[in-house]
Design brief:
Layout: E1 11-12, H1 18-30, E2 36-40, E3 43-48, E4 51-55, H2 62-80
Antiparallel strand pairs: 1-4, 2-3, 3-4
């Protein structure tokens, strides 16, 4: 997933098969407020059924991670429109 500048916000994890990748992609597009976004060690991650499906880069500061979280939420809202 990219932000408005075209920079990576999240990179997906490897999936065992195309079906699993499709389910994760659909979840990202439709879950919105129900999305399990976690913030750990200066990094954002998205979880589905107890497994991490996507992670951000490591951010240098809490403020940078918080800004990325806001950009992520904005990107997810725009994708749903």
């Amino acid at each position: 997933m990219l932000n408005s500048k075209g920079d990576d916000l999240l990179l997906s994890k490897a999936f065992a098969d195309g079906r699993a990748a499709g389910m994760a992609s659909k979840h990202l597009q439709t879950a919105q407020d129900d999305l399990d976004i976690r913030q750990d060690d200066q990094q954002l991650s998205i979880w589905l059924d107890g497994e991490c499906i996507a992670q951000s880069q490591q951010y240098a500061t809490d403020e940078a991670r918080q800004l990325a979280l806001e950009e992520l939420r904005s990107a997810l809202t725009s994708d749903a429109d």
